[in-house]
Amino acid sequence: MTPKAQLPIPEYFDPKKLGEVWRVPYQERAAQAKEWAKQHSIQPASSDKNRICLLIIDAQNTFCLPEFELFVGGRSGSGAVDDNLRLCEFIYRNLNAITTIAPTMDTHTALQIFHPIFWINEAGEHPLPAATSITLEDVQQGIWKVNPAVAHSISGANFSALEKQACHYVKKLSADGKYPLTIWPYHSMLGGIGHALVSAVEEAVFFHTIARNSQALFEIKGGNPLTENYSVLRPEVLDGFDGNPIAEKNAKFMDKLLDFDAVIIAGQAKSHCVAWTIDDLLTEILARDPNLAKKVYLLEDCTSPVVVPGVVDFTEQADAAYQKFAAAGMNVVKSTQFEVQSR
User: Which of 42, 57, 214, 305 has its CA 20 to 30 A from that of 31?
Assistant: First the structure.
């Protein structure tokens, strides 16, 4: 395998706009992408002998822009903005070698188990988002209770079943070694501007789609009201209190990823949705063939951990996860030094 010559970055790309929301001029970019492909002899992705997928996890406004709900600043304070600058440049420079881009989209509605409205205390108050974790003991002691007013929308007015499921859920998280249930601010709300891809990333993905005649594989996750869904490959909890399934693994997307010759992974947040997705991918790889880990590349400079100054810092957990992935055979690389290979 030999590296393809990297391409220049289109003149329209403005690094100063990475932290802003704006409308992508699709028709103009489409015409430029066609001309770009002609100018640089970029072939349709269908001709690729070495099929490469760039998996972009949750590069959405809600996580990636400072004024939005769950901005992933990392310890630098500007993490996701800096990450997306490098990510966009990586896409443009390797446009002729990336076969398919697969953006995942964290997708929520208000009445979900990790949002404030789902829970109340004795005073009828909702938990403070980003500062509240709910444990099994909290539920058993009645510190936090399921809000009876949401039962009609979530469980068809079966409040008792919803209470049992909530208790089962936090117990299952603990038993499986997952993070405790975190109450997050309302985020990635379906239909809202926070749900959208960061404009500069959307533009780069669209440009790639047109230049390479390769439809981006958008993958939706997070709509189940009864479980968190950090990983795009499976929700946190799959079963209900009664033993019946409430969710299932995303086997179809798993198969699709592992069918590529190489999978490159970037996105937000390194400590949560990125790490959980990679961990699920690794679990599947180890079950099928441990050698498959070698075809996974992690762009460590295009992802940042969750850090809330003075509240929580997941940097060490994120770094430990990446050390685990590297030890299993995955390649931890920097986007500025890594060149996509082709046969």
Answer: 57
Mean pLDDT across 329-334: 97
The C-alpha atoms of residue 143 and residue 121 are separated, in whole angstroms, by: 6
* pLDDT for res 342: 59
Q: Peptide bond before 269: cis, by omega within 30 degrees of 0?
A: yes
- Tokens 């996750």 — which residue? 221
- Residue 125: count of CB within 10 angstroms of its CB: 11
Q: Provide the whole-model pTM.
A: 0.94
Q: For residue range 228-272, list pLDDT tens digits in order.
A: 999 999 999 999 999 999 999 999 999 999 999 999 999 999 999
Closest Cα to residue 219, out of 300, 112, 303, 107? 107
Quickly count helices (H) and strands (E) in the chain. Answer: 10, 14
pLDDT at 337: 85
Q: How far is CA 212 from CA 77, 91, 187, 198, 207, in A?
A: 35, 12, 32, 21, 8
Please tell me the number of Cα atoms within 13 Å of 237 on its side-chain side.
Answer: 30
